[in-house]
Structures are given as C-alpha cells and as structure tokens.
C-alpha cells in the first residue's frame, strides 16, 4: 500500500495542473484544457442549481435518514470551492451550505457510524456516502483554506466514526463488497487500523466476480459503471492492488460491444433492475479516460473523446457531468491529454457466451439476440435474477425496436424464455421446453383419511394436495426460434412452436417518437398504443429511418391479441407490458411462422 506521505506529496504536485489552490507548481505538466474547461463550466452550473435545492436535501436527511444526496452535494460544492478556475473558488456563499451539510451528516449518523438510506443501519448504503466524503475531505485538506477548518474536522469525524461500522458490517449484493472496500481503503490510508485492512483483505479474498467475457456476475452495465469499476480503481490506487486494473480493463473492453450509436448501453442481459431500463455511456466516461491514459488504449481514448465531443448534449443518467469535477481534481492524471484515438468497433458480430448475448453492428444499425435469462434454471422471478423475456432487439438509426417477445397461453406459465443460445449454420438458435401437469389420484400409501395433506407447489401454484407424490399427466410446449441476418441487413426469425395447441402472440414494441403504418394494422380494443398486424407488412418510421416487418398472421377467436405474462405476475397484479408502440402478431400452435424485420 502507498504510504500516506508519499501519496499526498505526489497528488499535491500533480494537483497544480488542475488548479487546486495551495498545491505546489507541477513542472512540465500537461493538461487537457478543453476537458477541464467543460468540467469546470458544468460544475459551476451544477453548484448554482444545488444552492437553490440543497435545503431540501438537508431536510430529507433529517426526516428520512437519506445521506447519499447530502454527501454528493457536499462533494460537488467542495470541487468548485477548491478549484482556482471555478467561479466559486473560495466563495463565502458556499461556506454556509458546506458547513450545514457537514453538520447534518454528522448529526444524523448513528452511534455505530452508519446511516439508513433504504435499510436500517446499512453498511453498503453508508459506503456510498463515505466514498463521496472521502473524496471531498481529500480535496479540502489539500486546499487547506482556513475558512474550512471546522467543517473539515466535522467531515473527518464522520469518516472516522464510519470506519468501524464498515469494517464489521455486512452487505447485500456482489458489488457492495468492492464498494465497502473502496470506502475503507481511503479511511485506512489516513487513519490506519488493522481491522480495516483485515476486512478489505477478507472481501478481496473471495475473488473478483468477473466473468471471462468481461461482465461481472450481475451482468449489469449500470453497476459496472457506477459501483464496481470505480471501487476497483480506488482499491488499485489507494490499497496497492494493481491487479484490479485488469478487471476494469476487461469490463471496458466488453462494454465496447454493447454501446449503441446514440450513447445508450444495452442492458437486456443484466441481473439487476437495469434489465428493463435505459442506461447511458457517460457513466463510464472517466473510467475510459483513466484506462486510456494509463494503457495508451486508442479505443478507450476514442470513447472518452466521443463523450467529450457530445458534451452536455447527451443523456447522463445517474451522475450529472457537473458532479465529475471532484474526481478529476482528486486524480489530476485524468486531466492529461488523451492518447491518439483508434477506431471503435462498428462492424462486428460479438457473442458473449457467459451472458448468452449476441450483438451485431453494421454502422448505425444494430441488433441484440438474448437467450440468457435465469428463469429456466431457477424457476423464479426475483431481484438479482435475469428474467427479461425480450429475446431480440434492433435499431436502424433512430428507428428502434426495443423488444420482441413471444407469449403463448400455456397453463399461464408466461413468456418464452430461452434455455440456451447456440450458433448454428446461418444464424442463432433459441429454444425452450416447458411443461405442466394434470395430477392423478394419490397412490394408496400416500392417502390420508383426514384429508390433511401438506401444502405444496406444482410449479405454477400451491395447494394442500401433496403434489410430489401424485402421478402426473404432462402437457408440453416446445419452442424454437432461428434468428438469421439476411443480405441487406435485415433479419429473419423462424418460429417453430409445437406439442400443444395454444394461442400465442408475438409482441413487437417500438420506441415512442415515430409513426406506424400498414393496411393490415388493427387497433386492439382497450389497450393504448397497441395494434394487431393481421395481414401484410407494416412499417415504423422515425425521420428518414424505417423498420419494415411482417407479415401478419390472421386473426380470430382462437388467436386473440392477448399477451399472457404468466400467473407469477397476474397474481400480484404485476405487469410486463413494455412502454412504447406495440404490435401483436398472433397465431396458434402447432405453428411454423417466419417474421422478417428489415
């Protein structure tokens, strides 16, 4: 681990390049002036916004114990306060908010050093706040302005009080381990305690949960960008674990293949909440910048340069650009000029076998094939599992098909979720077999005169019928989907659904913002923005970009325009209806049907 004296000396010297007051001059330092100017301008705007709203954040912390927003506001105010190029450099207008935020964070901290933030006395939720406070404290101490002496003592007290709670408390999820370690590492660097090192070493001894393809076990771009990668980078820098750079490097390489041309990041394969939500590339910005500068990787440099070029005219997701200044002031090497950019992959077929995900890109046209949900193995819908039934997505420029799903009405078992994804000649094969039982009378040895049988689960529902001991009469539904790209960039999806005769519906969901046309389209009664394609082809158009799909497959009472999400959702009044403009193509098994999308 780097000694504290050495660390403070080297970072203070480099800090002069990014304009932190009180730092010695850096000889021959180089700075990406345009990058620093962008960060400074956006941080100043962010601080101006926070000056009008931070009081609500203080109230929220006092009333609900939510510390994260308060810690982040303190971090952002700190960044502009210590930065010589900021309009708020050493501004008296920030001293009151800084002091108030520090005081309330100290007052609302429990005796064990923890905060609530969604869970009672939560070590991982506390760690999110500690990460920001560690950073803010380092900047304030380096700045050394007399006006912040009292506030610095308060923040130091919060950090020192949090240390034991983080060193002895537990976590909920895989990424929490690395978050807690990163929070502890910086506390340990300033106020060493053997207990802190023991806990960090114990968590790290479990092994970093990176899959061979580069994703972490949660397969979540959001948690990679916001939690895991930043935590591992902090541990590499502040705990001397340089091997952790390799995990971040591998994850950023994997991310190159899930980037959409408009800056979104594909997350259908995630095991976390982002499996059904949009996520955005700017969350990775500083990670790509740091590793580009560290490794000289031109592709990483190209991502960082692209995000810089897009500037404030892009969606930032969880972290506003103005909140990033503090990280660069803390690690001045991030302000160095980027190495020469190399072309980003724009023509590829990428198969991530760990996630059972295929990504295809041809310029601005992309497609995603997904067969990696956890449902076939776990038979459960739950947080932490991949259960999104979307198995195909595509986009042609601004025309976006966000989701293609298949819903058979088979014993209310819900959507088709593939049991595997295999490369086959000419395409990719998705398949699944589901079955449900009718139950026969119990064998004599398991009968009870009082009729008091144990409550058991038959795979769909619970009943006091002792299901495990009953003979079964099975019904089976087999589904196979063969996905092929055809000349010209279009796609053919061949469906073969067999073994049982049931209604089914293909559900295509297009991103809002375009127009839907086609003579064979019929509105579905009682369902907003939902149509059935009965005959011919239809088109979805956004500006000059167009997706043509079809054909329709008829209509009628035996193939109603109904999407059955399954009893696991309907019993809880849940919904799997995606947001957008939906088109249903219905049929009845046994069925062979070819869908073309181009």
3D architecture notes:
The protein is α+β, with helices and mostly antiparallel strands. It folds into 2 domains: 4-239 and 325-334, no CATH class; 347-436 and 476-597. The protein has 15 helices and 21 strands. A 9-stranded mixed sheet has the order 3-4-5-6-7-14-20-17-16, with no helix packed on it. β18 (538-542) and β19 (545-550) form a beta hairpin. α5 runs antiparallel to α6 (149-168). It is globular. Mean pLDDT is 94; it is low at 1-14 and 22-28.
What class would the helix/strand composition place it in?
A: alpha+beta
| Poorly predicted runs | 1-14, 22-28
What's the pLDDT, averaged over the residues? 94
Strand order of the largest sheet: 3-4-5-6-7-14-20-17-16
Shape assignment: globular
User: How many separate structural domains?
Assistant: 2
Euclidean distance between termini CA atoms: 56 Å
